[in-house]
Design a protein that fits this description.
About 55% of the residues lie in helices and about 10% in strands. The protein contains 21 helices and eight strands. The strands form two sheets. The chain has a five-stranded parallel sheet, with helices on both faces. Strands 1-2-3 form a three-stranded mixed sheet. The structure holds adenosine-5'-diphosphate (ADP) and magnesium ion (MG).
């Protein structure tokens, strides 16, 4: 029965994760057992378990639930004999296994998602400040708090951090954290078992309600209806509500107007895409954490910078890359240097390889600074041309595989040392000049799109 569920979940995953990832990571997973919300899956190696756990657990949990298995945790076992990894410590696996269960059966909280482990930078400082404020548990000043932003930017992390903090500061308060699909799932379950009154009573009795990824209830009529009632009841009772979504309330398709306008009545803050400094900060903090689990692994500084440059999509991918590097370096007993990175992360790097050309970079940079292409590559040394030129060289170096001499040739036949100087200059400026840093981030995003 549950094996069959796993089969269906696998089929659905095949559609969402992509053919290659499916073949490598999902297909080899077997189903062992299910008990008390924990689905036990088997994997051929501990490394794989580790990798799947940090990269696909959300997707797997989601599909299991969609296929009728009320799982809220995953546990990975290495098949044939050995019940659990002994050779490789699993830093990312541990928090999930040890996650405390919440009151009133919310989704389990990840014990690693605290304010302590959240790295604050310009792109997320507002969201972080708002979350901190709510976590103090004082008077309800803005209701709801609506956090939105792209995938992997830290929405769930912040919500869990609020819940952890509240549990410490005000243990008597009832905090309920639910993903929107859990909300929907529980609701449907309640209807089936004719327990909707209990469900409503449970929802209405909480002091703080958090619903993660609310965009998932858009278009689900009866769930929206229930959500709306809960929402109103709690707001009028002055109970704090915290909601996250992948976009602003007004932009969620198929969400009822009255819900949209209700959501807009509180404080709305967005998490911006990460910038280089934030990514580097996160990597440094994670590397320190992993270092405790893998004391034998040495990681070179230039590796973290390289990753922060090359993997700009989302923090989850960044973390996955680091986990993989540590596990791999530990296995083969080598230091983590750029060579190991190339060997171990070929796929990840290829995926975030934007395959942009130098011509494209030049065009986008010219648009941005309102210059002519001929001035960008021409001989003039005016600051108004030289700075954008250096920016374009920097992008060419960090976003393409071209060598310095090749880049020099595309910039009016300049010498490779000129390119090197330009790249260095921009790297330095980024640290001290936020305008340049913002420009770069914007250009990078335009080029990636
Ligand atoms: P979202 O819910 O927005 O999709 P998550 O909160 O699940 O993203 O974050 C994805 C991963 O990235 C998590 O492991 C989280 O701990 C990590 N992460 C995101 N932002 C930060 C940050 N600012 N500092 C530390 N870790 C972060
Ligand atoms: Mg999330």
């Amino acid at each position: 029965m549950t094996k069959q569920t796993w089969g269906m979940a696998q089929e659905a995953l095949a559609q969402t994760v992509g053919q290659n990832s499916y073949k490598t990571w999902i297909e080899p997973i077997g189903f062992a057992s299910f008990d008390d919300g924990v689905a036990v899956l088997t994997v051929p190696t501990a490394f794989m378990g580790n990798y799947v756990q940090s990269n696909y657990s959300d997707a797997i949990l989601y599909q299991l639930n969609m296929n009728g298995l009320q799982a809220d945790r995953l546990n990975f076992q290495v098949s044939h004999g050995a019940p659990r990894a002994t050779s490789v410590p699993t830093p990312t696996a541990r928090p999930v296994a040890a996650a405390p269960k919440m009151d009133m059966q919310g989704n389990p909280l990840n014990s690693q998602f605290t304010f302590d482990t959240f790295v604050v930078g310009k792109p997320n400082e507002l969201a972080h400040a708002a979350a901190r404020r709510v976590a103090e548990g004082g008077d309800v000043t803005f209701n709801p708090l609506f956090l939105y932003g792209g995938v992997g930017l830290g929405k769930t992390h912040l919500m869990h951090a609020i819940a952890h903090e509240l549990q410490i500061r005000q243990p008597e308060k009832r905090v309920l954290y639910l993903s929107a699909d859990q909300f929907m799932y529980r609701f449907i379950q309640a209807i089936r078992s004719r327990k909707t009154m209990d469900f409503k009573a449970m929802l209405h009795s909480v002091d703080i309600l958090m619903i993660d990824d609310v965009q998932f209830i858009a278009g689900k009529d009866s769930t929206q209806e229930e959500f709306f009632h809960t929402f109103n009841a709690l707001i009028s009772a002055n109970k704090q509500i915290i909601i996250s979504a992948d976009r602003a309330p007004g932009e969620i398709k198929d969400l009822e107007e009255r819900i949209k306008s209700r959501l807009q009545s509180g404080l709305i803050v967005d998490l911006h895409p990460t910038n280089f400094e934030l990514r580097l900060g996160i990597l440094q903090s994670k590397a320190e954490m992993y270092g405790a689990s893998y004391p034998d692994v040495k990681i070179n500084d230039d590796v973290l910078e390289f990753l922060a440059h090359r993997i700009s999509k989302n923090v989850r991918v960044l973390e996955g890359a680091l986990t993989r590097l540590f596990a791999f370096a530990h296995l083969v007993g080598r230091p983590v240097d750029l060579e190991l990175v190339q060997e171990c992360l070929t796929d990840t790097l290829r995926e975030s390889d934007r395959k942009v050309s130098i011509e494209e970079i030049q065009r986008v940079v010219c648009d941005h600074y309102n210059l002519r292409q001929s001035d960008l590559v021409g001989p003039k040394r005016l600051r108004a041309f030289a700075r954008p030129r250096q920016v374009a060289m920097f992008l060419a170096k960090t976003m393409t595989q071209r060598s310095l001499p090749e880049i020099g040739r595309k910039f009016g036949g300049r010498d490779h040392t000129t390119v090197m100087h330009g790249v260095k200059k921009i790297t330095e400026l980024c640290q001290i000049d936020s305008d340049i840093a913002d420009d770069l981030e914007m250009l990078r995003r335009t080029l990636e799109a």
